[in-house]
Amino acid sequence: MDLTTTLLAASKADKNAEAQLHQWTEQNYAQIAPALALELASEDKPEQARTSAGLFLKNTLYGKSVKTQQIYHARWKSLSAETRKSIKDSLMLALRSNLPSIAHFGAIAASEVAAVELPYREWPELLPTLTANLEAAPHIQQAAFECLGYSLERMGELEETVPGWPELQTDLVDKMLTTIVNGVSPSKPEPIRIRALTALRNSLVFVKKNMQVAEERNFIMRAALMEATRSPDVSIRKLAYESLDQVAELYYEHLQDYMSNIFELSTQAIRTDPDESVKIAAIEFWSTVATVEMSIIDEQALGSSSLACQYYTKSALPNLVPLILETLSQQDEHIEEDEIDLHSTGALCLQTISQTVEDIIIPSVMPFVNQNISSDNWRLRDAAIVAFSCILDGPDTQAVAQYVSQSIPVLLQSFEDPNETVRQSAIFCLSTICKLHAIAIQPAQVHGILECLLKKLAESPKVASQACSAIYNIARSLRDETDQDTNLMSQPMMTLLQSLFQVCDRSDASEHNLRATSLEAAAEVISSAARDVHIILVQVLPNVIDRVEAALKMPSLSKEENDEKFQLLSNWCILYQALLRQLPKEAVLPHADRCMATLLQILQMDNSISHDEAFMAIGSLVDNVEGDFAKYLDYTIPLLIKGISKFEETNSCKTAIGTLVDISVNCGGNLVRFGDQLVSVLFECLKDSSADRSLKPVVISCLGDLAMALQGAYEPYMQVTAMLLMQAAQQQAPADDEDLLLFINELRLAVLEAYMGILIAFEDGNKLHLYMQLLQNIFGFLQYLATPASCADEQVVIKAVTLLGDIARLLGSNDSVKASLKSPFVMQLLTQCADVSTSTWTNEQVSAAVQS
C-alpha cells in the first residue's frame, strides 16, 4: 500500500492504515516525515490524503505526556539539517496552497515544527514567509495567523511543562507581535481578525517586556482588545474578554489605566450582550481579577507580595454583584454535569468575590437571599440558596453565624421543595455550612439534619449524591471528637452506615458518582466514631471484607465495567483504611488474613485505579497489626517493588513508597532479606532522569526509614547512598525562583532525614564507626545551610540542628567531630533555629561533647 492510499484509508479511521503509518514512523522517521510533508504540499494529490498527511505529521511531533514529547522532539532533532529543511520548505508551500483546507493543515503542522525550532533560533525563514503571506488571498492570510497562534500556544505549553525548555527571546516575540497586529484592526475581514486575535491571546504569556512600554501596552489593551469588545462578531467579542482575562492574570499591575473602561465594557456585556458565551467570558474576567487580588492580599499578610492590591473587586461590588446575582436565576435544566453555563459561571464568580472581600460581601447578597428564598418562582428560590452557598467561603464564621442559624430550618424545609434543582441546592448549601461553619450549628440540630439527609438518600442519584456529601461534611466536622467516649455521631452510627451501604447497592449508583460518594461518606462516618461505637465497627469490618470479596468476583466484560469495578474496589479500600485506623489490634487480627488476601488480589490485577488505595490500606493494616504483618512480607514486597518501579506514575510511586515506610517502621529486621531489592529500586528512581523531581525527596527520606529497619545490614549500601545524598545536598536554587526553592528545601529536609535515619540505624546496629565516612559531607552541608545564600527554610534549619545534636550525642567524643562542633556555623545554626526546645537540647549536646 503506497502512502497516498494509506493516508486516504487513515482519514476514514481505518485501523490497519493508521497502524501502518505508525509503523513507518517508528521504523524510518527520516523517510516518512519528509514524505508526509511533500504529500501535504503536492497539488496533484487528493485533498483528503493531503489533509491526513498534515495531521499525521503534526502528531509525530505532538506528545501527550512530557516524556513522549521529549522523545518526539529528540527524534525530530536527530534528522539531518537537509531533511528538516525539505520538510519546512514543503510546509511553507502548503501554507500558500490554493485550497483553504491545505493551508489550514499546513498551519497546524508548521506550528508544531515552529514550536520545536523557534525557541532555539532555528527556522528564521518562517516569520518573513508568514508576513509575506499577509498580502496573499484571504484564506492564506488566515492560515498565516493560524500558524502564529498555534505556534505561540504550543510554545507556551512546552515552556510550562517541559523541564529546561528555553524561554522565547524578546526580539522574536517582537517580530511575531508585529506580524499579529496587522490583523487585529477592525478594518480587517472578521475571519482574519478572529485568527489574529487568537494569536494575540496566545502571545500574551510572552509579552512581559512589551507590556512595560506604555505605547505598546496601549495598543494591545485599547486598539486591539478593548476595541474588539465592541465588535458585532460574537467570536471576536468573546476572544477580547478571554484575552483581557489573561491580561488580568499575567499583568495585573498594568491594569490601572484601563480598569475604568474595562469595568464599563464588561458590566455592559454581562447586562446586555445577546450571546451567553460573551457574558460568560466577561464574568470570568472578574473571577480572575478577584483571584489575583485574593492572592495579593494573602501574600501581603505574609509580607511577601511584590504587587500592590488595587481593590478593584471591592470597588466593583455595588454594581457588579447585582449583575452576578441575576445570572443565578438563569439555570439550564438540561445542561450536562461538567458543562459551563451562565449560572455556574456566575456562581463561581460570586464565590471568588466572596473569598476576596470576605465579610463585606454579606450586605451585598443577603437582601437578595431574603427577598427570593420564598419566591413562587423556583428559579428565584434556587438562586437565593445558591447565592447564600457562594458567600459561605468568604466571611468569618462569627460574621455569618446568625445567617447560618436562621438558614437551617429554611434549608431543611427546602429539602421537600417540589423542584429537584432547589432540593439539590438546599442540600449542597447545608453541606457547605457543615464543611465551613459547623461550629455555628447548634448540637441539638445535628440529629435533625441527619434524619432529613437520610430521607434524601432514597431520591434521584443527583440529590442522593449531594446528601452523601452533606453527611460526609457533618462527620468530618466531628473528627476532633473521636478521642471521646461518645459524640454526636454515636447514636445514628449504625443507621448511617446501613443506609450508606444500601445506597452503594442501588442499581443506579453509578450515576452522578453516587456509589463513590456514599462510600466516602461511610468512611468519614467511621473516622468520626467515638469509643462507644467501636463495637459496631468490629461488626462492620467482616461485612466490608465480604463486600470486597464479592466485588473481586464481579464479571467485567467491557472497559467501562472494568473501570467501574476497580473504582468500587478503590472505594472499599478507603473504608478499610478508616476501619483499620479506628479499631484496636485485637479486633483486627482475627480478620487480617482475609483483609490482606483481598488487598493482594487487587494489587495483582492489571489496573492502577485501585492500587493506590490498596497500598494505603496495607499501610493502615501494617500500622494496626505492627510486627504481626511480617508473615505477609513475602507476598507484599514484590508487589510493592512493582509499584515503586512505576516512576512515570508519580502519585502511585509515592503511595507505594509511603507503604514501604510504614512497613519499615513496623517490621524492622524482617526486611533484611529484601534489602538488595528495595534499595535497588529506590536508587533506580533517584537516577532516572525522566522521573518527576517531586519523587526525589520522598525516595531519599524513605532511605532513612529503610536504613533504620535494616540497622547494621544497611552497610553494603552506604557508598552509593553517600554519593546520592551528597549530590542532592549540593542542589541550589536562585532566591527569586520560589517554586524551585521550595523543592530544594524539601530535598534538603529529606537529605537531613536520611542522614538521621542512617545514624540511628548504625547506633542500633553497633556500627557507628561507619558513619564517620559521612561526616565530611554532612558538616559541609550544614555549614552551607547556615549561610544566608542557602535560603534554608525554618523546617530545614530545625532538622539540621536536630541532626547536629544527634551527632554530638553519639559521636562527640571523636576529636575530629569535636573540632567541627567548635566551628562558627554551629552557633549560627543554633541562633537561626526557631524551635527553642530543639536548639536548647542541641546546644546542651554540643557543649557536653566539646567539653568532654
TrEMBL record:
<dbReference type="GO" id="GO:0031267">
    <property type="term" value="F:small GTPase binding"/>
</dbReference>
<dbReference type="InterPro" id="IPR016024">
    <property type="entry name" value="ARM-type_fold"/>
</dbReference>
<dbReference type="InterPro" id="IPR058584">
    <property type="entry name" value="IMB1_TNPO1-like_TPR"/>
</dbReference>
<dbReference type="GO" id="GO:0005737">
    <property type="term" value="C:cytoplasm"/>
</dbReference>
<protein>
    <submittedName>
        <fullName>Importin subunit beta-1</fullName>
    </submittedName>
</protein>
<feature type="domain" description="Importin N-terminal">
    <location>
        <begin position="17"/>
        <end position="97"/>
    </location>
</feature>
<keyword id="KW-0653">Protein transport</keyword>
<keyword id="KW-0677">Repeat</keyword>
<dbReference type="GO" id="GO:0005635">
    <property type="term" value="C:nuclear envelope"/>
</dbReference>
<dbReference type="Pfam" id="PF13513">
    <property type="entry name" value="HEAT_EZ"/>
</dbReference>
<dbReference type="Pfam" id="PF03810">
    <property type="entry name" value="IBN_N"/>
</dbReference>
<dbReference type="InterPro" id="IPR001494">
    <property type="entry name" value="Importin-beta_N"/>
</dbReference>
<keyword id="KW-0813">Transport</keyword>
<dbReference type="GO" id="GO:0006606">
    <property type="term" value="P:protein import into nucleus"/>
</dbReference>
<dbReference type="InterPro" id="IPR011989">
    <property type="entry name" value="ARM-like"/>
</dbReference>
<dbReference type="InterPro" id="IPR040122">
    <property type="entry name" value="Importin_beta"/>
</dbReference>
<keyword id="KW-0539">Nucleus</keyword>
<comment type="similarity">
    <text>Belongs to the importin beta family. Importin beta-1 subfamily.</text>
</comment>
<keyword id="KW-0963">Cytoplasm</keyword>
<dbReference type="Pfam" id="PF25574">
    <property type="entry name" value="TPR_IMB1"/>
</dbReference>
<dbReference type="InterPro" id="IPR000225">
    <property type="entry name" value="Armadillo"/>
</dbReference>
